[in-house]
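QA checklist item 7 of 12: single-chain prediction sanity check.
[x] sequence parsed
[x] length recorded as 202
[x] structure emitted
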Amino acid sequence: MFDGDLDAAWTERYLQVPAIAVDTEAMGLIHGRDRLCLVQIADDADRVCCVRIGLGQQQAPNLQRLLEADGVEKVFHFARFDVAALASGLGIGVDPLFCTKVGSRLARTYTPRHGLKDLVMELVGVELDKGAQSSDWGRVEELSDAQLAYAANDVRYLLPARQRLETMLRREGRWELAQRCFRCIPVVAELDRLRFTQTFEH
């Protein structure tokens, strides 16, 4: 657990791997009203850390360096929310990225279930406990063991899920389409932050 930012050693460690899993927790789902509280990161060696974001905090230089690094793919589930939250809270422009929810919608067309719990259960064989999903992530005291376990598990299985999704997308001839969709996510996230909710409607 880090307060405010990653330290230099963990930043360098993550910068040496080709991909990291990332998730965020906030006080709610409305950008600009509900502040960013926590950023979770994991790599393929199961090195997981959580960074608490303080009330009123607007910068995290090491996190920014990592999440904007060209050589490290950032893997999210529902990246649209996390990318917007990181931009709104810390001014971070995430790139490049992979979204397992978008990937799932393009690859797993045989099911309507694209939530993280269902995705991880099918592709990784692990049942996630989502009991701490709705909780006070901005609390002043230390986060509970249940909150920390929930936060860690939300990133721990994203990388193996991502690999299986890539295999499926390539098999079905949808890999290039998925990559184009991932490149659109920062634009969609910015539209969300600016409250443009029907930009592409008739």
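[x] summary fact logged: The beta strands are 2-3, 19-26, 36-42, 48-52, 73-76, 97-99.
[ ] second reviewer sign-off
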